[in-house]
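From the methods appendix. Each design record in this collection lists the tokenized structure first, followed by the designed amino acid sequence. Records were kept in a plain field format so they could be parsed without special tools. The example shown here is representative of the layout used throughout.

RECORD:
FOLD TOKENS (258 positions):
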């Protein structure tokens, strides 16, 4: 099973933000948020997921999107924004390895602040014969409203949520080569290789032991990020209904203990 990731990097963005003089911060924030929204809509309409990461560098799960789709994305950004984007495509058995490959493709073409490096499109998408099954895990905080939103001010609530995200993000990256992203509220979505139930339970236990925040997770799989992510949402609803910590929206393979 292979994951296809695309690194989306704004070309020469740092220097642009201060040329000919520093630009107003809220203008930059507006540009970044609008650009992310447009890219998310473009990729999402083709079955992909995009995560804002640092905004000047975004990470997309693009299983099922070929070179033509990537070129169209670059053209759309060029026609609508005062910046351009370079795209690196990487494929591998784990999301982390796929991102490494995508990053190497862009870095080989030049620095992110090289004004002569624009609209790079590097790397090869998966071919139609590859097993492109994607696994997505949708985590959320148990009773975030009751424990945090209705009890604490927003910034202190945010600290608790961000601590859980940081703990989970690092654990999943190091233990499984998975990439986890905060997506708002108390929600974290992880792009994962195929993992068993106990791997997710171990991650949940780690976060609770590390920062004292309780999580639950629904897991889905599919040919595209949308398919897998939508199944993960349904599995997360099963967690809420059943009062469980880990649920899958697809049958699990039997273990040696069965």
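DESIGN:
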């Amino acid at each position: 099973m292979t994951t296809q990731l695309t690194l989306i990097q704004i070309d020469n963005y740092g220097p642009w933000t201060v040329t000919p003089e520093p630009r107003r911060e809220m203008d930059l924030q507006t540009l970044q948020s609008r650009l992310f929204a447009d890219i998310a809509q473009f990729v999402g309409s083709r079955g992909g997921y995009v995560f804002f990461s640092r905004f000047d560098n975004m990470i997309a799960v693009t299983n099922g999107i070929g070179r033509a789709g990537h070129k169209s994305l670059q053209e759309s950004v060029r026609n609508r924004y005062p910046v351009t984007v370079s795209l690196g495509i990487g494929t591998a058995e784990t999301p982390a390895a796929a991102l490494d490959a995508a990053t190497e493709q862009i870095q080989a073409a030049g620095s992110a602040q090289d004004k002569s490096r624009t609209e790079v499109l590097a790397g090869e998408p998966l071919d139609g014969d590859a097993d492109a099954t994607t696994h997505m895990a949708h985590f959320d905080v148990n009773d975030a409203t009751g424990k945090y939103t209705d009890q604490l001010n927003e910034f202190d609530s945010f600290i608790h949520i961000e601590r859980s995200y940081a703990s989970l993000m690092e654990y999943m990256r190091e233990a499984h080569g998975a990439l986890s992203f905060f997506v708002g509220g108390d929600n974290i979505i992880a792009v994962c290789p195929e993992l068993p139930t106990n791997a997710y339970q171990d991650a949940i236990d780690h976060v609770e032991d590390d920062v004292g925040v309780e999580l639950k997770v629904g897991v889905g799989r599919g040919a595209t990020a949308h398919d897998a992510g939508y199944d993960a949402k349904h599995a997360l609803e099963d967690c809420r209904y059943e009062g469980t910590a880990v649920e899958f929206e697809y049958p699990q393979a039997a273990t040696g203990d069965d």
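APPENDIX NOTE: The first helix runs from residue 13 to 17.
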